[in-house]
Design a protein that fits this description.
By secondary structure, this protein is mainly alpha-helical. It has one domain (25-298). It is built from 13 helices and no strands. The longest helix has 31 residues, at 10-40.
Amino acid sequence: MAPAPPAPTPATSSRLDWLLFILLGFLWGSSYLFIKIGVDAGLQPFTLVAMRLLVGFALLGVVVAAARERLPRNPRMYGHLLVMAAFSVAIPFSLITWAEQSVDSTLASVLNGSVPLFVIVIAAVFLRDEPISVNRLAGLALGFIGVAILVGFDPADLVGGNLTAKLALIGSSLSYAIGGVYARRMVHGLRPMIPALFQVGFALVMVAVLALIFERPLRIPLRPDAILAIIWLGLLGSGAAYLLFFRLLGNWGATRTSMVAYLLPVFGIVLGAVVLAEEIDAGLLVGTALVIGGIALVNARWGSRPLFGTRATTVAKPQG
């Protein structure tokens, strides 16, 4: 019998976690590319979202069952998980997918990377331990200038629907932020995989109903690119990515793991340009730099003394 492999050292474990961190950024950042591939292949927005959630829910269900995770006993907790499913999954997934019918995946990835900026504003109002500080004000100002540059104003947008799509992407970021703050305030005492399972499951029901109402007859093109988009988004973007996220959350904590937000625009821009030949102009690069710089300022130790509230903490940014 072969000898057992040596136990991983802290250094080896750290290197593995960093590799998983980069992989997580790639999986979530590539979701925008595969959403674009899916809608361009003829999948309707609600249908694509429902299909990816169905695949993701199946994977998460198997993992939760294998781990014998305990389900919540408090009936009210399911109500909180339902709200989280709406704001953290169903609404943002649907808005992003609908918007990518009109805009490039690169722009979608960058605008969605602004979620931490919206979290700052909402958390300052509803969470006592998330005050506004000097660095957060500076980060908000810089980040929202970047968002304004990315949205811009082109008269052609009013005709082509691009402006509405850009506003939908901003709405998805706002929805993610509301869901994250709600979870911080209302959902406690659960192992992380349980909220993930119920968020995806409840959101699946919501979006499936919308698809049946607004997209009948349902069309699922039996094209390789459409099938690839569903499988990638379901198994990897909505399933495996959660597993990586919760491993890192357990090893690193929320603050360090939340830094994956920096990788999403990077992978989104590179993949959109390389795979779909999407144009990268100066406005996209400048806006991206300002958004990432704003997030960096928000999480910086400099100027973290609160202007009001109790203490400054780093905002985590989980993705769907």
